[in-house]
Amino acid sequence: MPMVLQRVSEVKSFREKSTDKNTQKWAEKPYLFQTNRQPKNSYLAIPEVSSENRRFLPISYLSADVIASNLIYTIENSSLFEFGIMNSEMHNSWTRVVCGRLKSDYRYSASIVYNNFPWPMNPTEKQKQAIEDAAQEILDVRKNYPDSSLADLYDPILMPADLLKAHKKLNKAVDAAYGKKGFDNEAERVAFLFDLYQQYTSPTAPLEPETKPKRRSKKLRGDALTLLTNLCNELISGDGVLMDAPRLSIYGQ
């Protein structure tokens, strides 16, 4: 209790010294959040900053009694399907290309990374179920390591073999929802996602994918690199559009 009282006292002092008049008023109630943005139900937590060495962002469910800090984004009442997509290679590849950086680490954002991510279009119930099953398997495997943190589990060198296997199964299921059977490399995957993004945002482009997609070069270059540059500028400007996806929040907002 003494530590709690000390923290409340520090909050009061901090608010009193603020130049914002509204914050100064909240110094009268230092034991309350100035704005209550805490999710009321379980939520998916996405770290704002993550090591560039990780293949997967350490994304997990947290219960409502775990306070969401300003260093994570949240999706309240997230389904296993959404958890699966967020933990897939599709989403992680997109993040690596589109996200900002803190030094060299990945810096996630709602406006540029998440809000512009092209979710699969009209996946079948069978495809959704396959993703949910694979997502649950990842959660189940994580439980096998109760003494390991997410940072431990997703260490690029120490990541358990069974967890990596579960992620590969998830990637296969997610790729299938996009109508794909895998990619030769990440550049090819990213080029596909940007093509899909362009379909979603172009007023004249067909919404249905081509029956026989053109063969992609193994490297992002030429027109693909130009497309990537132009679309990144579009993402930053906020001109993009997104599919119907669960709302991502910071402080539960």
Describe the structure.
It contains 10 helices and 7 strands. It is of the alpha+beta class. The chain has 2 domains: 1-32, no CATH class; 43-250, no CATH class. It has a 4-stranded antiparallel β-sheet with strand order 3-1-4-7, with no helix packed on it. A hairpin with a 2-residue loop joins strand 5 (100-102) and strand 6. Helix 3 (80-86) crosses helix 6 (125-142). The model is unreliable at 210-224 and 238-243 (pLDDT under 50).
Q: Into how many domains do the coordinates divide?
A: 2
Flag low-confidence runs.
Answer: 210-224, 238-243
The rough form would be described as globular
Q: Return the average pLDDT rounded to an integer.
A: 85
Number of H/I helices: 10
Helix fraction bin:
40-55%
Q: How large is the share of residues in beta strands? A: 5-15%
Strand count, sense and barrel status of the largest sheet are: 4 strands, antiparallel
Tell me the structural class: alpha+beta
Distance between the termini: 30 Å
Count of beta strands: 7
Radius of gyration: 21 Å
Order of helices and strands: HHEEEEHHEEHHHHHHE
